[in-house]
Structure formats: C-alpha cells, structure tokens
Design brief:
Elements lengths: L3 E7 L4 E4 L5 E11 L6 E10 L1 H6 L8 E8 L3 E4 L5 E15 L6 E4 L2 E2 L23
C-alpha cells in the first residue's frame, strides 16, 4: 500500500453518489500547486471518500476550501481533454482529510472519527495571544 498526502483547494463542490452495490461515496477534485514563478504547475487530484464520513462532510466540501488529503494513490489513467489533447488523471482514495480555513477554523476527520487539529489562537493552552510567535517545535 502507498500513502500520499496533498494540500490544495477544492475546484468544485463535492458530489455524493451511491454505487449499484449500495456503497456511499463522495467525489471531489483538489488542485495542488508545486513549484514557484515560471515553473509553477498545478496538479489535479480526483479524490473519493467512502462511507458515512463522506456523507457527513459533504456539506462542508465546497469550492475554494483548502484541504489536506491523505490516502492511497490510484494508478494514473489517460483520457481525452475537452480540447482533444490527451490528459492524465490521478486519483486518491482518501483515508484522512483536514478541512482548513473558513469561518469555522480548522476541522478534520480521520478513520470515521473527528480529531482535533492544531490549536487555533482562541483555544491555545497559553491563552492564544502569543501563539503565532511560538517556536515550531
């Protein structure tokens, strides 16, 4: 098994589907930038989240939301783009997802249970005023 982690933004609202066998899944696409300046490239990642976790997160997975996804990378597949050019699609079966940003702060879900992310300044044990100046270790 391989495990990969990507951070990026959702390019559209997530969509919910049910397979013919009755398995619930949520699909969404993440755009992840790498490189700088003229060498900057965007990688597109087609993500799928199975089960009740996906259904529970569906309302939060909206276009523009920054997420960090981790899971098993699927083999790349080729398809023809709208412009007729060959393209390569990369898929990820999501195991863990962190929802970042937004008015509600940082949220995450792992293994079907919520878990706390990094403390926000409002809930930092030291009171939060100096949280941004804390050393990163």
């Amino acid at each position: 098994m391989n495990v990969c982690t990507f951070t990026g933004r959702l390019v559209a609202d997530a969509e919910s589907r049910t397979t013919p066998s009755g398995t619930e899944l949520v699909r969404f696409r993440v755009a992840s930038d790498i490189g700088w300046g003229d060498r900057r490239q965007t990688h597109w990642l087609d993500c799928v989240l199975f089960g009740s976790r996906g259904k529970a997160l569906l309302q939060h997975l909206a276009k523009g939301l920054q997420v960090t996804v981790s899971g098993e990378l699927e083999p790349p597949r080729q398809y023809q783009g709208r412009d007729g050019e060959p393209r390569i699609a990369q898929g990820l079966v999501v195991r863990d997802i962190d929802l970042q940003g937004g008015a509600g702060g940082r949220q995450s879900a792992q293994g079907g249970q919520g878990r706390g992310g990094a403390p926000s300044p409002g809930n930092h044990p030291a009171g939060g005023a100096d949280y941004d100046n804390d050393p990163p270790f």
